[in-house]
Amino acid sequence: MYSTVPDRYFDEMVAPDGSVRPAYRQIADWLRSQTRKDLRQTAANAEGIFRRLGITFAVYGSDQSNERLIPFDIIPRILSAAEWRRLERGIEQRVRALNAFLHDIYHRQEIIRAGRVPEKLIVLNSAFCPEMLGHDPARGVYTHIIGIDLVRVSENEFYVLEDNLRTPSGVSYMIEDREAMLRLVPELFARYRVAPVESYPEHLRRTLQSVAPPGCKGDPTIVVLTPGIYNSAFFEHSFLADEMGIELCQGDDLFVDDGFVYMRTTQKPKRVDVVYRRIDDDFLDPLTFRRDSTLGVPGLFSAYRAGNVTIVNAPGTGIADDKAVYTYVPQIIEFYTGEKPLLSNVPTYNCANEEERAYVLDHLEELVVKEVHGSGGYGMLVGPTSTKKERTEFARRIKARPHNYIVQPTLALSTCPTFVESGIAPRHVDLRPFVLVGDQIRITPGGLTRVALKNGSLVVNSSQGGGTKDTWILED
Amino acid sequence: MLGRTASSLYWICRYVERAENMARLFDVGHRMSLGPGQDGRHREHWDSTLQAAAMAEAFHRRHERAQPPQVRDFMLFDEANPSSVRNCLLAARSNARAVRTAITTEMWESINGTWLEFAAIRPSRVTYNDLPALLEWIKRNAAQFRGAMLNTILRDDGYAFCQLGTFNERADNTARILDVKYYVLLPRSDLVGSELDNDQWSMILRAASAHRSYRHVYRDRYRPWNIADFLILREEMPRSLAHCYAWMTRTLADLESFYGARYGCHDIGDSIYERLSRSDMDAIFQSGLHEFLTEFIAANNALGQAIAESYNFY
């Protein structure tokens, strides 16, 4: 009843010879025991759970009151303990190197002096934050909360699609997807040993505590700073604050007095030591960044520079996950760790190079074009599914501003069985594990598996109709 | 606790209370319109219903005469009327969403579920016969939210702000219901009221969910004196002004000891409660029921503002 496309894509459950991979055997048995009606009922129950809990996201550009659920697929995505260990090592190496890179870029810029990364690429980059030069954040950590997007193309080949070092979202789905699965199919958890993900908020709290300013005595006061209820990820902000038992603040709940940050309470103002902000750099402080921002806190950045508060993640981390800088990450890893990268980048064409650009323009039909500063799947061309008109348009844009685009081969993203209208069918997936960097590096065994629900689609972003799956890391 | 959080808790409970009051007021108007009588008398019922809901002026800016379908849409569904049941539920739910971390899962699921179900109703599909069930549903869901709050919330400052919102709103509502009909409660020479009076009295009691409990307390037919006494001075009546103020002063005292600080709102609350405790119906009728109620509504309002100032609502 489940047929894959064995010649073209790696299927997570079924090997090319038609046998079920060991990690999926119990799932395959379970799927065989379920009628389509059973599965439909389970899927409906899942939707009920999510809606009641208020897990919704707003879609940019649509009516603000329009809250949608990210579709959830009831068939889990599974990785064996051995597969996960390999990923874990690669991720840890990568986030160490990226934090070292950020420290260097905002201090002596050795990597530029060594000629490994072009100076222009950094200092002329809009994600570079000169205000951060010479600042020493607590414990030297710049990016504390990280989501690394991975795709799998074969048994042993994973690629890093992008690093999310600014304010990555999706971790609440990792946790709530698991909650939902525990309620929906407890029998499956009895058959497997699945590593729990529920300790993430506790690890996040410990990470945030560990980076309080050195001058902070006693238990630091930590807050989550949200743009408010109309933000697409508001549920997550609220969820994390609740799970950690800390205040969820909006910009106007905080103020700066004499170099310190305080929150407005029903009583006297309360000093704040660590701000886990879910607001972009630009909007953080109208006195330093965008003046028209009403979401931020005036004076926050100077309190930060004075070392009186820690902003998590630090401003200016975008310079390390910029799509143009991404192509240098393998060199960055080698430069700071002296090791070969354990996880590979997707091979990327540089359009500024005339030869490579000519190749790109000739082969747009097979390639994926991404805007350097785009995110969320907007401003993207997926060659194989594009129209002639779209390709002509992107060719024009690439010629006009070659630096503004990166181009990659269309990756044969692995597929995972997914319950859709027509039954159980293979759909493409990626994986975003979440990493915390503070007094130590903590990687939650799991992550967010995003799934492209449309047949043949390779775009997994929720804003483009993608869904999520619970991700199971098996214990030995 | 953030001042904004305190403010949201207060308003969540105020709006849920208001939604319930709107449903009850509309229910009474609806019920009266089912009784025998001429068109003129029915219109009068609807007018006083709108007045008790404090939305007569806004209604008449849009509609010339109070006809049942227009009143129904205005009180229950209208997006332009800030106190329509729809907008009360939406405001309660938006506030709840903003302070999701300060309320319990049970409270959130209750108000979120209520809003989602209400939002799915198509007003044009609600028939005359659907109305009683819809009004029951609104009252039941408000009660369920309050039950969830009382059963699950920590007894700390957050609980105090919830209670203050509820009773501030309820006191306002009861005072308005009385004030709209104060003239039918005035003592007159004829000792026995007409059928018409009886209808009016019954409407007042029903609007405060008090027509059954009245019998338990007074064991007598409806008498205007008793009705006013019941809704103003009787602390055991959960919608009476005295009951609301007993709760509010107690709650304000809790906040005083919780924070170790006393503010303007404490003095205002105490003085209103003291006045209610010292009054009897003789004195109130003598100095004028309408004047008493007008003053009360203003003082109750001033208390709301003082609470907002004292605890940094914004």
Brief write-up:
The complex is a heterodimer of chains A (476) and B (314). Chain A is of the alpha+beta class and 476 residues long. Chain A is 30% helix and 22% strand.
Mean pLDDT of chain B comes to 91
Q: What gyration radius of chain A follows from the Cα positions, in whole Å?
A: 23 Å
Unreliable stretches of chain B, pLDDT < 50, 5 or more residues? none
Strand content of chain B: under 5%
Number of helices of chain A: 14
Structural class of chain B, by secondary structure, is: mainly alpha
| Mean pLDDT over the full residue set of chain A | 91
Number of domains of chain B: 2
Low-pLDDT segments, ≥5 res of chain A: 58-65
List SSEs of chain B in N-to-C order: HHHHHHHHHHHHHHHH
Give the termini separation of chain A.
30 Å
What is the total tally of β strands of chain A? 23
Percent range of helical residues of chain B: over 70%
Main β-sheet description of chain A: 5 strands, mixed
Query: What's the helix count of chain B?
Result: 16
Can you put this structure into words, describing what you see?
Chain A is an alpha+beta fold and 476 residues long. Chain A folds into two domains: 22-213 and 309-345 and 411-473, no CATH class; 349-409, 2-Layer Sandwich (Dna Ligase, domain 1). In chain A, 30% of the residues lie in helices and 22% in strands. In chain A, the strands form seven sheets. A five-stranded mixed sheet of chain A has the order 13-5-4-20-21. In chain A, strands 7-6-11-12 form a four-stranded parallel sheet, with helices on one face. A four-stranded antiparallel sheet of chain A has the order 14-17-15-16, covered by helices on one side. In chain A, helix 2 (36-53) packs across helix 6 (171-184) and helix 3 (81-105) crosses helix 12 (329-337). Chain B is mainly alpha-helical. Chain B has two domains: 1-153, no CATH class; 155-314, no CATH class. Chain B is 75% helix and 0% strand. Chain B is built from 16 helices and no strands. Chain B has helices at residues 3-34, 39-52, 56-62, 68-77, 85-98, 105-119, 131-152, 157-180, 182-185, 195-207, 211-218, 224-232, 241-259, 264-278, 281-287, 289-310. In chain B, helix 1 (3-34) runs antiparallel to helix 10. The longest helix of chain B is centred in the N-terminal third of the chain and has 32 residues, at 3-34. Chain B is globular. The two termini of chain B are 13 Å apart. The interface between A and B is medium-sized, with 22 and 24 residues.
